[in-house]
Amino acid sequence: MSIGYRLYTALLYLLLPYVLTHLIWRGRKQPAYLQHWWERFGRYTARPLRPVIWLHAVSVGETRAAAPLIKALQARYPDYQIVFTHMTPTGRETGEQLFGAQVMRCYLPYDYPFAVRRFLDHFRPRFGLLLETEIWPNLIEACHRRSIPLALVNARLSGRSARRYAKFGYLSRSSLQKLTLVAAQTSDDARRLTELGAGEVNIMGNLKFDMTPPDQAVSDGAALRATFGAGRRVLLAASTREGEESLLLDSLSQLDMNDLLLVIVPRHPQRFDEVAALLEQRGISYRRRSQGENLSSGIQVLLGDSMGELFTYYAACDVAIIGGSLLPFGGQNLIEACAMGKPVVLGPHTYNFAEASSHALAAGAAVQIKDTDELLTATLALLSNPPRRQAMGEAGLVFSQQHRGATSQLMTLLEKHIHN
Question: 141 an active-site residue?
């Protein structure tokens, strides 16, 4: 093993006390982090009874994006067991909601050699797929030494992430070169990965376009909308991040809330109580989705404190503001809103979905504000113009349909590069 790997691994061991402390701290805010904690160090119980295809998706967004791919893998390799690994409890819970007992779920271990070795010894995958931006040197090295084909798929790499990986140039280059296949979402992602040292990088598109809204999303949305009261316009702030709720409330404070309901759905469930406290501090009347009550006209905000209902929230709204884009978090997934035929408002920070955002804007499915000062103007313009909302929604449907096909492209690449 090279000195670069030795130094990287030594640093990991030095950080072990912090890793343990951080896990306990996260567990205090979100107890699910302390469940199955031993898996993070390579200890597992249930064993697969069939040959394994291993798929890794960090959290909720990647897990949802993997749904069409998992269906395609199950159809192509019916004799194999899918083992789906995650890093967050919400990702794991989403996997359970989507697939039930059809797949095995567990946490991917931290990138310690002993933990990686235990994981590979336990599951013995025939091949593995890492989704989006998961470059773990010891994991990749261990798969390479065991001749386990490993692919980085639906790969995306923002300029910011590329600069961070470039600081560890040797490790990044060595890891990328040991992958069997790299399939990027866009040409920009492919270029950045190549500059980091990847060999041939294929362009497959974005799996998120292949996601299909649940069959019941429209009916569930209509049922939810019926609880809001007749004649109310509904503005959804979807997947909001830290600090964005305050900006939204500041910007929208000038709106007449008598005929408007603001629905806020925080990205992370551990922030539900935090956002509730913010609303209480500001004296804003609100209800939680979990309370399941009809909303009187005096209720100004619905706090979406439920998991797995984002498509339902989209179906129930008139306009969707995409969280993570108002502050420099890179933006969350706008494709889901477009697939539900809803007009989209983007903030200035969309580097996680740069190409999708650009195409949505060009298609007329979205508008983008330069700063939160423009949020009120953009929101009012859409809420007061039903024909424009309808036109944008229809453009979003066309846009989301036109960019489908990443799953098929990836399956073709897998057939070419991975033989079992």
Answer: no
